Amino acid sequence: MKTHYFVKKTPLSLCFSRLLWITLFFLISVSPAQTGELVNRIVAVVNGDIITLFELNEKVKPLLDRFKGREIGEREKAAILKIKENLLNNMIEDLLLRQEVEKYGIEISDVEVENQIQEFKNENNLNEEEFLKQLRLEKMTREEFAEKISQDILKHRLLSFMVRRKVVVTKEEIEECFKANKQDFALDKKVHLRLIVLGTGNSAALIKKRIEDQELSFAEAADIYSQGPGAGNGGDIGLLSWKDLAKEWRQALSGVCAGQITEPFVVRGHEALLLLESMESGREQPLDKARDEIQKKIYREKLEAGFNEYMDTLRANAVIDIKL
Question: What is the DSSP letter of 30?
């Protein structure tokens, strides 16, 4: 699944593969000079710009730390390899977007970046001291966080110019969506959820794979790994009103049926998973009451489709050489 840039994200984890084992083998059998050359070798070239093995392994490191001191099984190795491949793909997309930002001369000011940081702090109820403490937990400096925010803003501006202006939702589309999904827009809809919120060094994608492979249940994974509400109680956070859920939660649950797990999403800078135990439908409401919600739903879907199409076009026109 591709990484999209329409929602704010804070730092976090991912990946590694059999390539790492090969790398580690050579690291103990070559000289220091050779080691520097090996670790810094190129793993991808994108329109002349490079991504090094060192950069990729820096992204991988949080997940590697979790496996220190123990062997991993074949299923875990396969899952981690897939995650690493996806991560490199995301890094390539990120580089393509940065190249487009430079091409169109899109810029932002330090004031805009600082305003965005302040908004992040307000949304998460953090003062400056608490904010810095959170960054230390994520092994990130304030300057590094500001740089990430800067890049996100630049990407948003690029995408607004290249994608958002082309997205139109018609009256007919809203009416058709309402007829086909009336229960999704019902009043008093409630959901019974279980939640896993992960700390640094754990991969939501990997844990989801282990649950789907029946290596452990969602409740067991929550008790082992979760740092959020319901930890110690199988991740059970009870019956909640749909309208009271955060936007990110509702987006994650969109299209998920009872008994299914969401794709990984972000809760206050940490990767998270939800299990939908059950859903209470609630009362149907007229189209006029649901129109705004439906319009936003269709807009998000079209925006994602537009983003994917835009990235496909960038890739098709780019010269990309993957050396992983």
Answer: S
Name the token pair of 262.
Answer: 């969401």
Going by the DSSP 8-state scheme, the letter that residue 273 receives in this structure is E
Q: What per-residue confidence (pLDDT) applies to 137?
A: 78
Give CA–CA dist 101/42, Å, rounded: 23
CA distance 80 to 256: 25
User: How do the domains of the chain map onto residue ranges?
Assistant: 188-280
Average pLDDT score over residue span 284-305: 87
CA distance 16 to 167: 37
Q: What is the pLDDT of residues 221-239, one digit of tens each?
A: 999 889 888 888 899 999 9
pTM for this entry? 0.59
Measured in Å, how far apart are the chain's first and last C-alpha atoms?
19
CATH 3.10.50.40 applies to domain 188-280:
yes
- Write the DSSP string, 207-251: HHHHHHTTSS-HHHHHHHH--STTTTTTTEEEEEEGGGS-HHHHH
- The answer to whether the CB of 277 falls within 8 A of the CB of 297 is no
d(C-alpha 47, C-alpha 321), whole Å: 9
Give the C-alpha distances (Å, rounded to integers) separating 289 from 87, 168, 293, 294, 295.
Answer: 41, 20, 8, 10, 11
Cβ-Cβ contacts under 8 Å for 91 (sequence gap 6 or more): 44, 51, 55, 56, 59
- For residue 101, the SS3 value is helix
Q: How many angstroms separate the CA atoms of 269 and 267, rounded? A: 5
- Taking the alpha carbons of 201, 205, 207, 210 in that order, is the dihedral positive or negative? negative
Top-confidence residue, 192 or 231? 192
d(CA 150, CA 106) in angstroms, rounded, equals 11
Q: What would the two tokens of residue 212 be?
A: 């789907």
What is the mean pLDDT of the segment spanning 248-260? 88
How far is residue 5's CA from residue 84's CA, in Å, rounded to a whole number? 19
The residue whose two tokens read 């959901």 is 191
Query: Which helix (DSSP H) or strand (DSSP E) does residue 49 occupy?
Result: strand 49-52
Residue 34 has what pLDDT? 43
Q: 56 — phi, psi (to 5°)?
A: -65, -45
